[in-house]
Amino acid sequence: MIGYYITLSNAMGAGSVRAVKALEYFGNAKNIFKATAEQRAKSGIFTVNELKRLETAGPDYANEVIAECKANGIDIIPLGDKRYPYCLSVLENAPVVLYVKGKLPDFDSIPAVCIVGPRKVTDKGKIDSYSVARRLALAGFTVVSGGALGCDSAAHYGALKAGGVTALIMGCGILSDYLPENRQLRSLVEKHGCLISEYPPHYRASRYTFPVRNRILSGLSVCTVVIEAGSKSGALITARHAAEQGRDVFVIPGNAGNEEYAGSNALLRDGAKPLIDMSDIFNEYIPRYPDKIDIKKAYEKPQKMEKTAADSSVHKNLSNETLSKNAKIVYNHLNKHKFYPEEIKDTGLEPSEIISALTELEIELIIRSAPGGRYELINK
Predict the structure, then answer these.
(1) What letter would DSSP give residue 282?
(2) Which of 149, 115, 121 has its CA nearest to residue 133?
(3) Is the Cα dihedral 167, 104, 177, 360 positive or negative?
(4) pLDDT tens digit string along 272-286?
């Protein structure tokens, strides 16, 4: 039966309203393909090109996808399956199929918050994203984001460092080689949450896949938090989806003259809720989820990092349980106060793994970016 849903999704494309209408009309995906060409045409649902693709679709493609998913531990959850999140199923353009690697959170019983913002996020925005995600995860929320560099990465790391659950919604297939710099992050998320995509495993990312993906980010969440958004930010697309889906939108306000907040402030002008303090979110959802949200845990102090100084400029042998193995390796191979990534030698890591580790260390405020592509240690 799953094969019919994979074939339907492939024939209709991601984000298709007509695919959902067809499932409602015919009852399930198998009935769509068992119907005659005349019956499909008479339904009035499909375009001419879609009817042609449905007519010529065979089982080979779906069988290949199923075999690939089985070999790589990827679950396939079709629309209508009892595991499929109800909060997502009610969307008029709900994904026909979800591909999941890791443990799918209970989105219908435990509140999830989507955190979005730019790839080229400001230092303040990066800290805000990390902090908001961390406190939400500590309080019991699931943190949802898109796995990109910048704001998304900070959100995922914030949830992970809190020991919480996070879901990374991909704009490509789960096995795609998109953004190798975040390969380690995806591996961590897979172990402490899950990767989710509506695209088959090796489907490549494009400029079109991410805007379509964004409706899933907001659809799985009780609200979307916009950390920063310029006037043309992709975060605005997710915020629009959230509003159209009847979900709340929270926005961190910014200075009126800053382009980084032009889109954010426009959302506030149009009715989004300002996020001044975490209590703005907690007070909204505690009445709805009284047994799921623990505010006291949200304000626990982070564990102190244990360091031993080998010299006056660099802390060696970092011991911090919240850091990944690769981040510790990279940190312990730093021998300068200021350095370029290519100067980090003999780690046994791939260049992309080093970049990912540096991103994690930057988010943890252990290092910071310096002009000219360098980094520098933050001495404490």
Answers:
(1) H
(2) 115
(3) positive
(4) 999 999 999 999 999
Helices H, strands E: what count in the chain?
Answer: 17, 14
Closest listed residue to residue 213, CA positions, set 168, 170, 152, 245: 170
Of the candidates 131, 140, 79, 138, which has an alpha carbon nearest to the alpha carbon of residue 105?
Answer: 140
Could you give the number of structural domains in the chain?
A: 3
DSSP-derived 3-state class of residue 101: strand
Claim to verify: residue 156 and residue 197 sit in the same structural domain: yes
162, 282: one domain = yes
pLDDT of 172 strictly over 50:
yes
- Cα separation, 220 vs 93, whole angstroms: 13
Place of tokens 């339907």: 8
Distance, in Å, from the CA atom of 282 to the CA atom of 273, rounded to the nearest integer, reads 13
Q: Are residues 342 and 239 in the same domain?
A: no
Q: Please, are residues 98 and 77 in contact by the beta-carbon 8 Å criterion?
A: yes
**Tokens 């990279």, located at residue:** 330
Amino acid identity for residue 198 in this structure? E
Owner of token pair 């300068």:
336
C-alpha span between 242 and 224 (Å, rounded) = 7
Same domain for 332 and 200, yes or no, is: no
* Contact yes or no for 186/195 (Cβ under 8 A): yes
Task: For residue 107, tell me if it sits in a domain.
Answer: no
Same domain? 149 vs 259: yes
**Structural domain of 352:** 306-377
Query: Which one, of 98, 136, 131, lies nearest residue 114 by Cα?
Result: 136
The answer to whether residue 105 sits within a structural domain is: no
Residue with tokens 């303090």: 277
Terminal-residue alpha carbon distance, the chain:
58
Specify the amino acid at residue 53: R
Pick from 274, 298, 322: which residue ends a domain?
298
In a domain, residue 89? The reply is no
Per-residue model confidence as pLDDT tens digits over 331-366: 888 888 888 888 998 899 888 778 778 877 877 778
At 185, which amino acid appears?
L
Tell me: do 311 and 283 sit in the same domain: no
- Report d(CA 293, CA 283) in Å as an integer: 10
